[in-house]
Amino acid sequence: MSKTKKIWLGVLSFSPLVVTTLFIGIILLFYAKIIFGAIDGSLAYSDGREFIFFAVFLIIFGLLMNISIYLTLIIFIICIVKNKRIGDTAKILYLVGMYFLYTIVPIVYFFIEIIGKKEETASNE
Q1: Membrane-spanning regions, if any (predicted)?
Q2: What are the residue ranges spanned by the domains of the chain?
């Protein structure tokens, strides 16, 4: 595997964790603003533009987040299935792990299977 492909897979492996963390952080900031605004009485939506903007922003960011996560999962599923160096049991475990822990398993797979193992030489194939 080329060095450029490894770099892109590394970036892609961290993307679900990063975008999920950002999405949860943005939602928590919105709720904190609502809660603290209600406590001190400064929360007043006269025309609701700020609320509508935030709702639209969350919908668009959520769609982009899902696209990035599913793209990452599809690429890593293809990498797992095509990898001839790992056995069938390990492939099944990685695929099941991808389904349940989609933010952590791409990182684990990247460090164990892509970075951790040396490429096989052409004479061994």
Answers
A1: 7-31, 51-80, 92-112
A2: 3-113
* Alpha-carbon span 105 to 98, nearest angstrom: 6
| SS3 (DSSP) at 105 | helix
Q: What is the mean pLDDT of the chain?
A: 84
Average pLDDT over residues 25-51: 75
- For residue 119 the two structure tokens come to 């490429």
Please give the single-letter amino acid code of residue 55: A
Phi-psi region of 41 (alpha: psi -120 to 50; beta: other; left: phi over 0): left
Q: CA-CA distance, 31 to 42, in Å (whole number)?
A: 14
> Structure pTM?
0.74
Cβ-contact 67, 33 below 8 angstroms:
no
What is the dihedral angle through the alpha carbons of 4, 10, 15, 17, rounded to the nearest 10 degrees? 180
Q: Which tens digit of pLDDT belongs to each residue from 67-88?
A: 988 998 999 999 999 999 899 9
Burial 55-65 (b: 16+ CB within 10 A, else e): eeeeeeeeeeb
